[in-house]
Design brief:
Layout: H1 4-7, H2 9-13, H3 21-28, H4 30-47, H5 54-83, H6 87-91, H7 98-131, H8 136-143, H9 156-190, H10 193-206, H11 215-239, H12 243-265
Length: about 270
Amino acid sequence: MTTVSTVHGLENRHKPPTGVLWPLFMGWIRVPLILAGAGIVLLVYRRAGSSAGTAASVAWSPFVVNVVNLLCLGLLVWRARVEGFRLADMIGLRRSSALRDLGWGLLWSLLLYVMFALGLMTVVLAVGAARGALGSQWFIDVFVGTGDYAALSLPLWFLAGNGLLFPLLNPVVEELQYRGYAQTRLIAVSGNVALSIALVSVPFAVQHTAFAASPVGAVAFVVAFLLWSASAGVIVWRQGRLAPVIVAHAITNVATAAAPIVGVVLR
């Protein structure tokens, strides 16, 4: 019987270290960094007497995540040097398979979107039904909250610049960090694929609560991104390469990056 390590290429390209400390650290370090960044934004606006509220953290989210991505990319480069692996090998990008990776990425983006939407709407509709509030105002309360976009004065070039960088940088760094590094090593150490994917998916989901517009929205984000991440983890484990999921992740992030820009423009 062929073992996982000989089938799935990520485990084969470098020798994962023993122990779970670094995989868990790399899986969770983004959570406090992103929460701290979003918290600083809200605190600054509150101290300034602004009524922007959660709209501020949403508008600044690409910038906050871009900064965290650069920090985490530095960590990944350092670990690559210490452990003796190459990030390019982890991605598995090859000219000969570029079109195939793009095709798989498009397919996976649809699947992952379905999983995300299923988790998101299940929570929102269930809570809304329990409260008897399934009208349009309910969705505004959940996804927009009390944030006042009119109180924001961010220049469009700032939003556009961060919005353009975000879908280019975020998919690569997050996939390298969560599924390329943390998940691969946890599987190699524990031998438990389901547990390893879960241990990576939980922090992936929790980090997104920093930009939720309401408590219900935060819960919906956790469930939705948990399903998204778990599905992506299975795909990477089965295909043994990050490239197709990076493509799918980038497609998802294009819409995410556009949201703050649209919110400010339509204020």
